[in-house]
Design brief:
Oligomer: single chain
Number of helices: 2
Number of domains: 1
Order of helices and strands: HEEEEEEH
Structural class: alpha+beta
Helix content: 10-25%
Strand order of the largest sheet: 2-1-3-4
């Protein structure tokens, strides 16, 4: 989130949408007062480092008008992963980065290739744990987005 005195706690917005965002924030365009358009956020590059120290490029995502972003990937090794989110910079904001960690309990694949198994009953608790882990990762990535957006160029 932006920490400047003119628009504190607002998300980082792309340079292309900055004029619309400023008109909205400073009420300089009456058509935007009750109908704020969704602006495009900023690009964030995601990189994971697996338990063996191997770097995995997860790609670049774009934050939304609320400063949030998300991505998913399928790890192939169990253990602790470090995930880095990097914003290079723009005409309006300095560069910044954040990091978080996630533990993968076990991998269901061997060298990225699924292993065929006999049909079995999946317990609801396993599904709920998977959903919970996904929600936690999404929240952490969202917090990283907020951290990234906190840095603004003067």
């Amino acid at each position: 989130m932006d920490n400047s005195p003119g628009q504190p706690n607002t998300p980082a917005i792309s340079d292309a949408n900055m004029s619309v965002q400023m008109d909205y924030l400073h009420m300089q365009n009456s058509t935007l007062l009750n109908a704020h358009t969704d602006c495009i956020g900023v690009p964030v590059t995601l990189t994971a480092v697996d338990p063996n120290g191997n770097s995995i490029n997860l790609g670049t995502v774009t934050s939304d008008s609320s400063g949030q972003f998300a991505s998913s990937f399928t790890p192939t090794t169990a253990g602790l992963y470090t995930i880095y989110a990097t914003f290079t910079d723009s005409n309006s904001y300095y560069s910044s980065y954040g990091e978080t960690h996630a533990t993968v309990a076990s991998s269901s694949t061997s060298a990225g290739i699924p292993t065929p198994t006999a049909a079995s009953v999946v317990s609801n608790s396993s599904l709920l744990y998977g959903i919970l882990a996904g929600v936690i990762v999404a929240i952490i990535l969202g917090l990283i987005a907020v951290f990234i957006a906190l840095r603004k160029k003067p």
